[in-house]
Here is the input.
Amino acid sequence: MSELFDAVDALVASRAPLPPAEERKRLRQAHGLTLDEVAGALKVRRATVSGWESVKKPTEPRGPEREAYARLLDKLAELYPAPVAAPAAAPDMPTDEPAPAERTPSTGQASEGTAVTAHEDTRAPVTAAAPDPASTAGNTSTSHRPHARRAAPAGAPADRADPRFENGPLAVVDVDTDGQVLAYCTGGLVLDVPAKSLPSLVEWTLKEARLGQPRLSGPGKDADPLLVLTEAALRRYGLPVALTEEERLAGRIPEGHKVVKQLVRADWKLTKRGFGPWARIYRPAQGSERACVQLCIPSWHALDARHWGGAGQLPPTELARVLGVYASRVMTPRGSTAVTGLELMTALHPPTRASGPDPAGKRHSEHNPGSLGKDPVDPAPCEAPDGHPLLADLPRFHVRGPAEKLFEEAYDWARPMTDAECMRRHLVGIDVNMAFAAGANGLVVGLGAPTHVKAPAFDPKLPGSWLVDLSHVDLSRVKAGKEWVELDGDLLPSPFTPKGERPEGPAWYATPTVAYAVELGYDVRPIEAYVRYDNGRYLDGWYQRLRDAYLATMADLGVHADLTPADFLTAMDGHRERDPELAVVVSAIKATVKGGLGKLRERPRGEGWRPGRPWHALARPTWRPDIRAAVISRTRINLHRKIVKHAAFTGQYPVAVLSDCVVYATDGTGPLDFLPYRDGRPLPGGFKLGVNPGLVKHEGTQTVLWGEEVRDRFDAPELNLARYIKDGAVTGIDNGE
Here is the structure.
């Protein structure tokens, strides 16, 4: 009989009643449990537990998991009964009294003055957002302090597995109408801040806020906590709401400012760039312990509107969400998107690592294989930009030509339309997604200094810069795959120059450009080269992290990687309006790619610099113009290869190319009207619609009459229409600088 009773008990338990999703979540948080902890105990995935707690569309556990989950919730309900609801106010007697605060248990002590309550903070705006995995899974344990406010869960949590950073990577610091300083964290958590001065705010952040982010690579460093100061917070801590014109040009407030003096008296230091929009406040590291806090000040233009849109004007909760999603998927911002793009490379490939123990058992710092090391290297003379110290002996007004200077840049090419193209109805632009990121994927680049070689045999696997004459490559007859094809070479841009002009003699090229000449079926005989025998796929991890960040955020906006071409175009239509905050994150991710690559050849920025003298960026091991050139070379070649494949198969030629945008004349209004799909399959090696990096999307459509009218108006037969195809607005000739 006992077996029968056990079977009956199991049957009853399999249908055990469960409380509503909101109550499930409340009980878990009341006990300070994370989603990962519950998932681990029940032997299910984290996303499964998150689904059980989803307010919009909760899923229900089944089988033995339901029995165990119900048992967990019953025990938690005994410990944390649901709060008694306040009596309803009479209909004719409205009340603005707050509901009784809901309190969470304490397993530790908070600092004096840190009084926080776990209730729905009505001061934090509620975001009606598209489902965001980072948002709906945003649960933060508050068991280390007595109480914590929780706003609407509109934020994206970072990795909560590390208890040191259980409150996420960053917080937006604001002051409410009652004068209380609040720190809005990711995941909707709001902390009361007791700090009365900026030095004490830094101390509180490092000792109690539990902000930061785990390192991205084993030998690397954890990300420092980021504090975003609103205008109200700036006033509270004695800082100006806006910089004067002089301060803006200097990029900092004066060293004699009272707040800077407060920091100095408290033994805090600032980096060489001083107290600016992205200030870093630190004390020298003690052993492996770092003491550093990053500040971001939106009203000082820390968040460039070209990349962050209107994020700087968002309320604290929404701003914490935008920056939190970016931090969790890319990394905690370290400055501009360009600076962060460069820092991400270093975070994934730290310059040094700990050695194995020596005979005495001690470990030492040693070079980390696959990194760029800790010391800068000089470029080859042809790779050095004008004004570099390597070129100090050149005559003052000397202009270097292609045989002296490596000039790998993105396309800016256009041509007059043919008579047949003028009879078409529309101009349709297609744009390559994350083109430069795709160009970095799998690319072998130099890791160390170059070696000069005379009359080398070309090796497509060896990164470097090659002086070679490619003027003999004739685009009217090239190899496309294994077959020779006949093309109208006059209607194609040259793959070897950014302006699409055919080279006239020897010039310097990066390895991908020379390799493409060989791929097209032509012999190459380099005159000399600067090659890098120490090389590797340095950018692979960088590409993969940015790709994953981009795809995850686009998926949150309803654009998935597995959509059919037609469904993809439909999903892209208006995707930014579905969740404008996540659309800002997409823009920032794209800017991180382009800006990070641009930083590899950063030019002087004021600094009292004179040609022939070094500038600050040259002291970085990540100042590597050769890597930038290789990525741009490969990106341009990837695009040209698709253009050739398309021309060989369809007989259609582009009328304009700008960076990663290509414009074709066609009778239809969209990409599917001229891209050759058969049974849903794209042309192998040609353009393919989709969200993945390297695939294309619809950039814009205008009429052929619009294109001809614009060129006539500005008397510019070769005006690059790709620059204006998106919205058709042309206010003047733009030279692209």
User: Anything to note?
Assistant: The chain has 22 helices and 23 strands. The mean pLDDT is 87.
